[in-house]
Amino acid sequence: KMKSCLFVCALLCAPLLVSAASLGECQACRLIVEEVHAEQLEWIERLMKAVSAGQTITQDIRTDDRVGRICQSQAFRKFVPSIRQDCESVVRSHRSQLVSALQRQPDIDSVFEWSEEVCAYDTSLCESRGTSSDAPLDRCAACIHLMEDLHASYSILQKRPDTLKHRKEVAWNMLEDHCAQQKLRHPRQQRDAVAHVCEMLVDEHEGSLVKLLASAELAVTEFSSRICVETARLCSKQQYESQERSPPGHAQEDL
Question: Which residues pair with 79 in a beta bridge?
Answer without folding.
Answer: 157
